[in-house]
User: What shape does this take?
Amino acid sequence: MHHINIPKDKRRSMADLHFDHVQWTNSLRFYKEEVGIFRNRLEEVVSKNTNWEFAAKAEHFQNSFILQNEQIDTLSHDIKIHENGMSAFAKEQPIAAEHGTFANHEGLEERMESFVKLYQELKADFNRFLSEWM
Assistant: This one.
């Protein structure tokens, strides 16, 4: 938990960082459940359609859903590591943790924003795919 040479506008309280972690963890849990729903829907549609063009597009989405789950697992793991680091610091230095400001997530915020953007694009593409082949 370093804040040496970090501009004030790039620092935040530990409570704010923790709030972000909780919010991101809940969002990732939701996305993981939603990917499961998409995978089930894809299996259902695949079982009713044998067109080769459809099969190729379906395989693309199947692979994309696997990658999304891997990204969710990686982000969840990295958030937990950051949260554990904050907890350890708070136990070692409770006064500094309560009153200090810290680096803003060490890149996690940008990674979450990027993930959400790409996830929303995949979701929109999948819904278009379903409407095209249903």
Q: What stands out?
A: The chain has four helices and two strands. The longest strand covers residues 11-13. The CA atoms of residues 45 and 81 lie 39 Å apart. The beta strands are 11-13, 101-103.
